[in-house]
Amino acid sequence: MNKKVALVTGAMGGLGTAICQALAKDGYLVAANCLPDFPPAPAWMKEQKELGFDFFQAEADVTDEGACTRMAAQVTEKLGPITVLVNCAGITRDKFFPKMDRGMWDAVISTNLTSLFNVTHAISPGMAERGFGRIINISSVNGVKGQAGQVNYSAAKAGCLGFTKALAQELVAKGVTVNAIAPGYIATDMVMAIREDIREKIREELPMKRFGRPEEIGGLVSYLASDLAGFITGAVININGGMHMY
After folding, report:
1. The CATH number of the domain where 171 resides is what?
2. Domain count of the chain?
3. What global pTM score does this model have?
């Protein structure tokens, strides 16, 4: 493959940023997805540029199938055929189930699960036609083990695992691998914003006594996107510091 092009959804969060940077260091032209007119986008793009990363800003609401199709076409026109897709977009709307309303359920399922259909449906046929592709879905430890207060999030992230395994079977003969990463507590801004006493309690309960680093997720994505990972498909790779072993 002469041109290496990667699209990362939810690119401007803590994990998305580390993933974009890791792929750029590997020589990929990286399309960084965000919502249209996303307020933090200009500052994020400026900061990345100052760090030496020249990303293409790919705007689309991942819950909108038509917008995702247009985004895939735009990225292909600007950068070339997409060879790596990282589905990283995700939100939380936490509440114990009796108090969870339908809006909280729909928002999380749409962003964290239906988005996989919307984006991957626009990109995977081209990968299969060209005989090469890497699809990497970011799930969660809570999609593997479940988590009280996160019925919507756990359901969506568990659905991500089923999506990964089924699609891997469909594409395995086409030269396209499909894998999932299930991170535990990673030191993103979201985790570090947890009240300090609660955060420290969580840290002490982790077998490794530390949070993961975003760069560790980026490194794993980098490996799964590489030629060395060509024999891995349909896998769920847990990266959670021993929090849950499965």
Report:
1. 3.40.50.720
2. 1
3. 0.96
